[in-house]
Design brief:
UDP-glucuronate 4-epimerase; two-stranded parallel sheet; membrane; transmembrane helix; 13 strands; EC 5.1.3.6; alpha/beta; Rossmann fold; 433 residues; binds nicotinamide-adenine-dinucleotide; UDP-glucuronate 4-epimerase activity; binds 2-acetamido-2-deoxy-beta-D-glucopyranose
Amino acid sequence: MSHLDDIPSTPGKFKMEKSPYIHNRLRWQSSIAKLTFWSFIFLGLILVFFFRSPSSNPLPQDPSRRSLRTDNWGGSAWEKRVRSSARVRSRNGISVLVTGAAGFVGTHVSVALKRRGDGVLGLDNFNDYYDPSLKRARRALLERSGVFIVEGDINDSALLKKLFEVVAFTHVMHLAAQAGVRYAMENPSSYVHSNIAGLVSLLEVCKSANPQPAIVWASSSSVYGLNTKVPFSERDRTDQPASLYAATKKAGEEIAHTYNHIYGLSLTGLRFFTVYGPWGRPDMAYFFFTRDILKGKSIPIFEAANHGTVARDFTYIDDIVKGCLAALDTAEKSTGSGGKKKGPAQLRVYNLGNTSPVPVTQLVDILERLLKRKAKRNIMKLPQNGDVQFTHANISLAQRELSYKPTTDLQTGLKKFVRWYLGYYSGGKKAAG
Ligand SMILES: NC(=O)c1ccc[n+]([C@@H]2O[C@H](COP(=O)([O-])OP(=O)(O)OC[C@H]3O[C@@H](n4cnc5c(N)ncnc54)[C@H](O)[C@@H]3O)[C@@H](O)[C@H]2O)c1
Ligand SMILES: *[C@@H]1O[C@H](CO)[C@@H](O)[C@H](O)[C@H]1NC(C)=O
Ligand SMILES: *[C@@H]1O[C@H](CO)[C@@H](O)[C@H](O)[C@H]1NC(C)=O
């Protein structure tokens, strides 16, 4: 790794340079000894340089790990930035570690928390699943509101430990994940890396932290898989996922149960239903439909067997943000300490949707009106490789316990998205994706 000086488990490495100097200083009278001493320092410096240089990174060239090499953290200036970003500025404010902060939902949640005076520190590996320049633009936005995003991986335990040493986070908003349903056939290991290994690494550090933070994290409506009973309610079965993505989110819910049960971590899972809006994700249909309609390119519109409608419960980002903040605010404290459970802790799961599924054809109608262009529709059979025919959330539980109440319909939300899209991609910027 590129930051040996920050790994708490190997502090001895750097003491070597100092201690012989301090203990033997007075005895080194001859110039030969001085020469030896300075050669030692020089050799030490070369070694330090060698270990810090990226070319010496021992990791294999596995694309799912590429992101682990981008980090470059540590040092007192860095710690100062971390502390300042995480500093609580309002009475009763909380300090939140937001993973996936350069992502779509992470950016919006971070801004909202910062705005009300909470301490916020972001963590993101800026991977290139979709155009990283959009993630960097979101980071610039966050920097302007005073949120620092540490560039690093959630599976980097040393980094996570360091962050908890520097800041006693009261909450973690865990949004970092490998998203996307069909990409799982191309790069399955990236799902295991972020959604399984990364989640476990994060929970391991959280359970050992003193105090333990309360954790709110993003699951997905995809856990309902092939269910046909609608609307989807939290108590419905979630054991027939239709994609590896869904399977890793379901696994995440089970892993959350385990850490709650064994270590007393307070855990809240949020099952998001197709989130959309400004600064959104270029791999999602509403986003690339917009891009392709503007380009005059045909767009694939999926149809289920017997011309069945494919529909989604589209949820506007501002509504999701309110749900996330309400989940943080109602989260009870974790009960463990010193890595041991002291009593039962809160374990929750909520649907965050909009309760009104819209056929994809209607999504395209709205986009055509907003963009003042006709779409070239290419009707295709829904492939059986991840996407489900429809999603529809029962949100009465979130309504009751989080006062969650979505207020933005698809027409209104898409209007805001299109306005952002046209502004963002005008002025020489190429459409992403
Ligand atoms: N947008 C939706 O419709 C939707 C629906 C259901 C669930 N979700 C979930 O909500 C969360 C946020 O989704 P989003 O739409 O903002 O996605 P996003 O891809 O825009 O954001 C995820 C961010 O996490 C980062 N990341 C990924 N792996 C990482 C790792 N190993 N270490 C550090 N950072 C890493 C990515 O760089 C990205 O910026 C995800 O967990 C996603 O699975 C989203
Ligand atoms: C995650 O990190 C652990 C060590 O902390 C490592 O053993 C494991 O290989 C990593 N997993 C992935 C998938 O990168
Ligand atoms: C919605 O979920 C609640 C539980 O939160 C349940 O009582 C109710 O019956 C569900 N409604 C429908 C229509 O499934």
